[in-house]
Amino acid sequence: MSRKAFKRKRRPSVLESKFHNPILSKFIRILMWSGKLSTAEKLVYGALDKAESSLKQPGLEIFLKALENVKPLVKVKARRVGGSTYQVPIEVQDDAGWTLAMRWIAQVARNKGGASMEDKLCRELIEAFEKRGDAVRKREETHKMAEANRAFAHYRV
After folding, report:
1. What is the CATH number of the domain that holds 100?
2. What is the number of domains present in the chain?
3. For site-directed labelling of 111, which of 8, 105, 137, 146 has its Cα 20 to 30 A away?
4. Is the pLDDT confidence value at 101 over 90?
5. Sign (positive/negative) of CA torsion 43, 45, 46, 48?
6. Run of H or E residues at 55
7. Is residue 103 domain-resident?
8. Which string of DSSP letters, residue by residue, matches 24-38?
9. What does the pLDDT read at residue 2?
10. 16 within some domain
C-alpha cells in the first residue's frame, strides 16, 4: 500500500441548464433516481417555481438560504477506543456540509406522504427557509449529539 498522499483533481461540475449554479446541479443529481436527470430537473425547477410564487422571492435564493439553514457545522463519528465506542464530535468541512444538507432535504421530501414529489420538495424547501421542518430538526439533533459528546473530543479521528 502506497503511503504517498494523493491529491485527486476535482472534475469540473456539469452545470444545470436554468440557473447555472453548481450547488443546484449537485442537488439535482442527489435527487435523481435511476439516472433520470430530466425528471429530477423538472421536479426541482417546479418546486422552486412554487416556492418562488408563495414566498415572493427568487427561487434560487430560497434554495440557497434553505440549504444554509440545514447545513450542519459539526457531526459525530464513531471511534473505538479500548473496547468502547465513543461518538466523537468533528467539524464538518464546507463541501461535506452542503452535501449533508442536500441529502437530508431530499430524504425528508421523499419520506413525506400524500402529495407529488414536487409539492413535498417545495414544502420542505419553504420549511427549511423558515428554519423549521424535519431537515432543520435533523441538523439540531446532530448539533445536540455533538454537544453532548463534547467530552470525547480529544479522541479526534
Report:
1. 1.10.455.10
2. 1
3. 146
4. yes
5. positive
6. helix 37-55
7. yes
8. HHHHHHHH--TT-HH
9. 67
10. no
